Structures are given as C-alpha cells and as structure tokens.
Amino acid sequence: QVQLVESGGGLVQAGDSLRLSCIASGRTFLTYRMGWFRQAPGQERELVAAISWDEDITYYADSVKGRFTISKSNAKNTVALQMNSLKPEDTAVYYCAARRVSSSSYEWWGQGTQVTVSS
Known about the structure:
Elements: E1 3-7, E2 10-13, E3 18-25, E4 32-39, E5 46-52, E6 58-60, E7 68-73, E8 78-83, E9 92-100, E10 108-109, E11 113-118
Parallel strand pairs: 2-11
Antiparallel strand pairs: 1-3, 3-8, 4-5, 4-9, 5-6, 7-8, 9-10, 9-11
C-alpha cells in the first residue's frame, strides 16, 4: 500500500508562486511514476505534471509548461510541484498520485490540496 500526503496549497494572487509537496510512504518507489493532477469545479481531473522516480523523465501539460516544475527527492521520498506565474485558471484542487510502471493508470492518490489564485 502507498500513502501520499500533499501540502502547500493556499490562496495567492495572480503572478505569485506556490510550492506543493507530496510525501510518499509504504513502498519503495524506484519503479514508480509520480504525478500531479488538478481538478477545478465542474471540470475533469487533468494531469498537470509527472516524473519517473528512477529517471529524470518529466511530463508537463501544455497549460503549465514554462511555469510549473516537478521535482523529486529520492532520499526524502517527496515529490514537489513548483508553480510560478500563477493564473486564476490554475485554481483547483491539486492531487499527488502514484502508479507502478506496469500500470496504465494511477493507482494511489493523496487527499488533495486547494490552490486558489485571485485576479
């Protein structure tokens, strides 16, 4: 079993920055993929960024490229999402998620953290 706990959400103004963190526990993660999703009211959950635990391979949604950076600390079992130049449309609940490399879908989810960007 994998446990994921997010932190770092909050209320900021447009143009500000926030850093989300996700602490993972319960398994060794060397063959896992970690992702940050977000879901705004009335919208589907979308993958914002992802990273492989054993390689420096990353993915970003077009909407956040150049503004968001995903990173990891193997020693601390944490995955972070640095969000810069935030926009009101970034407002959503952000979720940390994990999946095995062999899985086609994310299997474990955190409880979510609210990010609100005011204009």
